[in-house]
Specification:
Elements (H helix, E strand, L loop, with lengths): L7 H15 L32 E5 L5 E9 L3 E10 L7 E15 L6 E3 L22 E5 L12 E18 L6 E17 L2 E10 L4 E9 L13 E3 L7 E3 L1 E11 L8 E10 L9 E9 L3 E3 L5 E11 L5 E8 L15 E5 L35 E11 L9 E13 L24
């Protein structure tokens, strides 16, 4: 039962008993505890090949089609698999991801009294809530059979929304003559759920854009916990009249797990790019900027820096210009939390291992003990042939008067941007289709 009258601490005690009772059921098929399985075989096809009930397929008004399969876990909740993208002009779908899911929501409080792993400690997926049609405007709410360790006969939840939304300009360009304006309004496929953990309600949102971008966001809303109002020592913020009730500040450290399968193959490459700006020298009119590429051949715990980025590159597929297809990681705003070893880096690239599913508290997966129960322990020098990306985005929630009641949504997330997936802008209008690699000719 998940209602606001149950405190998080009390609920955690119940969940702990349930997980222990279920431990035997999640270790089936496990090999030796320290074994690291080989990479999974390449995906056989780019298009989603699941049954209709678990298939999402949407052709957007601009001509792009997204296809994927979905399933639901008691811990991570929604898992998207076999995600493919087919823009106008491409004869077949282009596989992007084998799977994608939330891999942890780590919530430590500033006073050190409470620290939670919302995905693994509280069976995040089991907290799926029903949505009303007003929450899924113009879309479809799918019924989900939620694995519930408390109630094997629990009813289905109408909790998976798929809909489309406008996102504003996809592009705008005025011709040299000024007689014509090329512009288009972009469209997204939006897939999301709402999961309740204690007093928080998390909106887990996946946006698939008609230009090939994927945007992943988690929005926290709901209520402030009424049991965390004792931080009057500078680790909280006064809520309500006067300066009596201090709501304790805390972090939300969200991890995503992305198993890439570009062009239907898991054998991808990872590259890191760094740019260095130097002051003007000699007769130069301005500073120079040199960008270098570093092949990431071994597992990596990476830190974002100014003018640094990463991309995952297909080992098999090229666009019509002969360039290798890739997706670039585009970080969102983040507050890095240094309190735990697994939250001290922004991105991890690890070699695929079916036992590595959660960024922290990865217990009772393939047996116990593992070679490490958090993602930082898995970066141990293996060669990357089937890279899995773990993206960490943090938010330090210093509460404010406006957080009650209810609490406005605060979002955190990142994007995957297509880089050379298509030879041109996938939404290029016919009048400009001949300008591939050519300067603007005044069209």
């Amino acid at each position: 039962m998940r209602v606001n009258s149950i405190t998080r601490a009390r609920k955690g005690a119940v969940v702990g008993l349930s997980v222990a009772a279920l431990a035997a059921g999640v270790t089936a098929g496990a090999g030796p505890a320290a074994a690291r399985p080989k990479a999974a075989p390449a995906a056989p096809a780019a298009a989603a090949d699941c049954s209709a009930a678990y298939r999402i397929e949407q052709k957007l008004s601009t001509g792009t089609t997204w296809r994927m399969c979905w399933r639901f876990e008691a811990k991570s909740g929604l898992v998207l698999e076999k995600v493919s993208y087919q823009p106008p002009g491409e004869a077949k779908p282009i596989r992007v991801l084998n799977s994608a899911k939330i891999a942890q929501i780590h919530v430590p409080y500033d006073d050190g009294k409470n620290e939670y792993n919302d995905i693994t400690d509280y069976n995040f997926g089991s907290g799926l809530v029903n949505m009303t049609p007003a929450e899924c405007p113009g879309g479809t709410i799918r019924s989900v059979k939620v694995p519930d360790p408390f109630d094997a006969g629990s009813p289905n939840v109408k909790g998976l929304c798929t809909t489309t939304r406008a996102r504003g300009h996809a592009y705008r360009m005025q011709s040299d003559t000024g007689n014509k304006v090329f512009q288009a309004q972009g469209k997204d496929l939006l897939v999301y759920t709402v999961n309740q953990v204690g007093w928080y309600e998390y909106i887990t949102e996946w946006r698939f854009s008609d230009d090939g971008a994927i945007n992943m966001n988690v929005g926290a809303t709901g209520s402030l916990s009424p049991f965390d109002y004792d931080a009057g020592d500078g680790r909280g913020w006064p809520i309500g009249k006067g300066a009596k009730a201090y709501a304790t500040s805390h972090n939300h450290n969200v991890f995503w797990r992305l198993d890439f399968g570009l062009d239907g193959s898991s054998n991808s490459k990872v590259e890191q790019y760094d740019s260095v700006v130097s002051p003007p020298a000699g007769a130069q009119q301005g500073p120079t900027n040199k960008t270098t590429r570093t092949a990431v051949t071994k597992e990596l715990a990476g830190d974002a820096q100014n003018m640094r980025w990463w991309r995952v590159v297909s080992a098999t597929g090229k666009n019509k210009d002969g360039h290798a297809r890739s997706y670039e990681l585009v970080p969102g705003a983040t507050t890095k939390y240094p309190g735990r070893s697994f939250t001290r880096h922004d991105v991890y690239f690890t070699q695929y291992n079916k036992c590595e599913q959660y960024a922290s508290n990865n217990v009772r997966i393939c047996g116990s003990p593992l070679h490490g129960t958090s993602v930082d322990k898995w970066v141990d020098g293996q060669t990357l042939t089937h890279p899995v990306a773990w993206v960490n985005v943090g938010f330090h929630h210093i509460t404010r008067d406006e957080d009650q009641q209810p609490m406005p949504v605060h979002w955190q997330g990142f994007s995957l941007a297509p880089r050379d997936v298509t030879a041109m802008n996938p939404l290029t209008p016919p009048a400009l289709a001949g300008q591939n690699g050519q300067p603007n000719n005044g069209s």
